[in-house]
Amino acid sequence: MDIQMFDPKKGVPATENERTYFRNGYGVGIGVIYLPSKNMPEMFTQNWPTMEVRGETVHAAPEFRVFETKKSAVRIFQYNPVQFHLKEHVFNGIQLFHLLIACLDGNPEPFSGETTLNPGDPLAARFLEVMAESPYFVINTYAKFEYFQTFFADNPFKEAVRSFQYTDKPQPKDVFMWAKAELERTVPFKYREFDWEPPQKTLRVNFV
């Protein structure tokens, strides 16, 4: 597994895969980030499990990475509340979890991004595992693939994810992509179509 650590001086650089995948310069991705405990403000460290990675004590967090072409486009997370949506869907026995983030920037269709999680995929399974333990989401923002700012938001799904019953059936990529296409066909990607958690303000974190 690719371990990405937060460097207090540099943040977290975009990967070459992200530069390729988001080649137009914008999009939202997810991952798991490891934050060195020694650099964490003490107010965050309570009730947040630690682990050892490369000889360092760290906190694992579910991460959103927001890519845009201008700093002004991602600065909205500093001034506007965010919302999250998470829902299980099953299509012909194929299980997926639909996760969304929105930043309430004043537009009828606010800035938003989505991902679909396949519990049969090791990386998605790890993301869900961390989401069941971390009290926070980490939102890292990028302008032209250069790291810009980091924000924390409360993770509203911690208890819900712990109660999920995951399928034990194989879900190969082609089958899962079919289920994802069914989701996109039946659920329009419009803000009002989703049941959102209550809005919350983000907190910018410098880790110094």
Topology:
Elements: H1 16-21, E1 27-36, H2 42-45, E2 51-53, E3 56-68, H3 71-74, H4 76-79, E4 82-91, E5 94-103, E6 111-117, H5 122-131, E7 136-143, E8 146-154, H6 158-162, H7 173-186, E9 203-204
Parallel strand pairs: 3-7
Antiparallel strand pairs: 1-3, 2-3, 4-5, 5-6, 7-8, 8-9
Written description of the protein model:
- The longest helix has 14 residues, at 173-186.
- By secondary structure, the chain is an alpha+beta fold.
- The mean pLDDT is 91.
- The chain has one domain (16-204).
- The strands form two sheets. Strands 1, 2, 3, 7, 8 and 9 form a six-stranded mixed sheet that branches.
- It is globular and about 45 Å long.
- The protein is built from seven helices and nine strands, in the order αβαββααβββαββααβ.
- Keywords: Plasmid.
